[in-house]
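Researcher: Good morning. I'm working through a list of sequences from a screen, and I'd like to move beyond sequence-only analysis. For each chain I'm collecting a predicted structure so we can compare shapes side by side. This is the next one on the list. No need for commentary yet; just the structure.
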Amino acid sequence: MLRSSYTIRSEEQASMLLFDSIGWEQAETPAYSFNGQNRTERSCVIFQYTLSGEGRIEIDGVVHPLTKGKAFLVTVPSIHRYYYPEEGTEPWEFIWLNVRGPLAISLWNQLIAHGGPIIELPQESVPMDLLWSMFKDIQVDEERDLHFLTGKAFQWILSMEKYLKKPSLLTTYIKNDKLHAAIQFMKNDLHNNNLSLDDVAAHVGISKHHLCRLFQKNINLSPFEYLRRRRIELAASMLKTTDQTIYQIAVDTGFDNASYFGKVFRSYFGVSPSTYREQDLEFLSKHVFFEN
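Model: Good morning. Structure tokens for this chain:
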């Protein structure tokens, strides 16, 4: 098989989950850089696995090296950037998978909850075998059936979930039970604009000062900043996937009013919520196919 990338396009909307694209490529210059705040596709998710060389990904202000056997899981849009480092000395070779749809977002979040956004995965593992199988289906067997490929993508997600549930493979991102419980509590209560640091600390049974130290030590953010980023990510997704008014989205994501929501949103994305909703960018691929 040869390095390349492929996208399957059809008129069908991703009401739940659809295969989007897959690629086996390498980057050699810092020109390879993707910012999750600027990519405005609707409800897309990315898995990217390092085969050789080294890349970087910055998530919530923390930079993670992506060496051989390491992969990242991110949703789009969200606050992250992955790139080839300026000090790189050899090509960064990787294979990636993109899936789209609201169910894809939900399943990705579950995978991240199990293993964190950065995972280690042996090349001989079942998920990697399935990933290469999908790539072969398209490149060698010229498979163009979107539903067949979606089924393979879903099978891959299930294999990842099974793999990540092994306790020995959990990353430090969620090994701290108190931190993980706080994160889950905050994610489940994003809509509550009265949610306070005291509420979160009381829920997990620690002081708010201890809670702040946990967040700073593990993800280099305050609990408030973490909560605000998750709210903005949810709002960005809702702008692209629903017809709700900007006011209603502001309320549903825990902001007091639309004016404040607009100010915060612009600080992250550089544009107003209404302008962001109107933007329409697609993933870049070398090949675009339409479903048979």
